[in-house]
Amino acid sequence: MEPHDLVRDHTVYSCVMGSRAFGLATQDSDTDRRGVYLAPTPLFWRFDKPPTHIEGPADEQFSWELERFCELALRANPNILECLHSPLVERVTPVGEELLALRGAFLSRQAHTTFARYADGQRRKLEADVRTHGAPRWKHAMHLLRLLMSCRDLLRTGELTIDVGEARESLLAVKRGEVPWPEVEHRLTALAAEAEEASRHTPLPENPDRPRVEAFLIRTRRASAQP
């Protein structure tokens, strides 16, 4: 079976991500599609295992095999968790509905560590751009602010919301380069501190519900193995 056939024929969940899902789309925005496919269980009985992820077949499309997707979600990978919470769902099968019903099982206090680590890395890249070119990549600065807002609110409420809502215009002003870099730095520092404070009182559990997710995966694999 060709990789793209897995995406075409075995996708259980797909959505639109990026600026369109975040409420930050403009006329020039791409349409980024993300998905999860369930490789048929018999494919795992061969020496050559099915791929854990696939690019395409469409432009700006990327998909993960269900097990890999769950592994990353249990580690609180920011991109994966946000994919599960996209407001723009394009396809969902019964297995996909079960996956979405598990969204809460993936959320834990580990999100603060993974989101913060990712944010730190992105901020260092922005600072390097400023040193080298005199200005950051403003689009990246906008998305970093958005990510930190999302992290802070997740820790405060226990729920992940990715649409920026009323923050849209202030974030787009950053993207257009209308906000001086020192002010952006100040906002980044303040948001990181707010997320740190929220982590001390978050309603999120210490760890994700790994047994519940594993039970779902085993049940799904068994069903896929049936002729």
Core attributes:
single chain, 227 residues, alpha+beta, Beta Polymerase, domain 2, 2 domains, 5-stranded mixed β-sheet, 56% helix
Which class best fits the helix and strand makeup?
alpha+beta
The tally of domains stands at 2
Distance between the termini: 17 Å
**Shape type:** globular
Q: Helix content range of the residues, please?
A: 55-70%
Instruction: Report the sheet with the most strands, covering strand number, pairing sense and barrel closure.
Output: 5 strands, mixed
- CATH architecture call of the largest domain: 2-Layer Sandwich
How large is the count of helical segments? 11
Low-confidence stretches: none
SSE pattern, N- to C-terminal: HEHEEEHHEHHHHHHH
